[in-house]
Amino acid sequence: MSVRGAQLDTRPLVGRSDAGAVLVSTWRVGTPERQWAAVEAVSKVWQSRPWPDVGLLSYSVYVGEDGDTLLHYSQWRSLEDYHAFVAAFRDERNAEIDAAVPGIERVALHAYEFYRSTSLAPGGAGRDPGCVVIVDVEFDGPDPARQRDWVDTVFEALATDPGLHPGGIAGHFHVSTDGTRVLNYAEWESAEAHIEALGGTGGVGAATPQWQKVHGYPGVTGGGVKRYTPALSLSAGV
User: Fold this and answer.
1) Phi, psi at 191, each rounded to 5°
2) Inter-CA distances, 49 with 3, 25, 124, 148, 234, Å
3) Does residue 236 carry a pLDDT above 90?
4) How far apart are CA 54 and CA 12, in angstroms?
């Protein structure tokens, strides 16, 4: 059996039907220069080795607007496949990356399942995102039904919003496997478009009863919104 190499993509195919698990993690590296050095190291390590044949579908890296963090988004056929990768491949690859960029702090690894997607504005399909906005929502305890109901409430708010910003492309909603979190992987044309949407009278989070229901949803205890620049996306080559 031949082993394929990594294929360089524009972006991952979020929501693909064969992805049974999505792993999202954060690295803290300290400075903008180290962010891009780490991306370079990841690219070199992954493209110089055969693609791991353990159910990994895609692996993407994003540079945080904060000048410190990297976001890692990987799609797997199953959570068991991710654990097989950890056992066989992860340490060697991370060791080479750490040799190139010492002092990386790896934090906040969470496992998700994809739930549903929506267009954020008319004509969103087909545009490449210049910015990915990660919206994290945390609940006060595990409840899979509540996770999905919160997402469905957001969909109702988006569908009734009178002025969605044209810079929005799509929102891809994921529910954590432990029942306690929701992650929205939102694609935008640019960071500037997202900032403008948050500050306007319409757009994301307009003052409607539906959005008020989202913002006052019971059991939400935390979360955050962070912007990232897409930097690297790899998948199995053909």
Assistant:
1) -65, -40
2) 10, 22, 35, 38, 12
3) no
4) 18
| Digit-coded pLDDT (tens) for 68-123 | 999 999 999 999 999 999 999 999 999 999 999 999 999 989 999 999 999 887 66
Distance CA 92, CA 58 (A): 19
Cβ 172 vs Cβ 117: under 8 Å: yes
Query: What is the total residue count of the chain?
Result: 238
Q: Which tens digits make up the pLDDT trace of 162-178?
A: 888 889 999 999 999 99
Distance CA 180, CA 62 (A): 24
Q: Are strands 220-236 and 131-139 parallel, antiparallel or unpaired?
A: antiparallel
Residue type present at position 144: P
Tell me, what DSSP letter sits at residue 124? -
Q: How far apart are the first and last CA of the chain?
A: 13
Q: In whole angstroms, give the CA distance from residue 50 to residue 2.
A: 10
Cβ atoms 170, 120 nearer than 8 A: yes
Q: How far apart are CA 54 and CA 77, in angstroms?
A: 9
Q: Output the CA–CA distances (angstroms, integers) from residue 225 to 18, 33, 100, 160, in the order listed.
A: 28, 23, 30, 22
Tokens of 213: 């229901």
Q: How far is the C-alpha of 152 from the C-alpha of 196, rounded, in Å?
A: 25
Longest dimension (CA), the chain: 57
DSSP character string of 136-202: EEEESS--HHHHHHHHHHHHHHHHT-S---TTEEEEEEEEETTSSEEEEEEEES-HHHHHHHHHSSS
**Distance of alpha carbon 213 from its chain centroid, rounded?**
25
Spatial contact of 29 and 107, defined as CB atoms under 8 Å apart: no
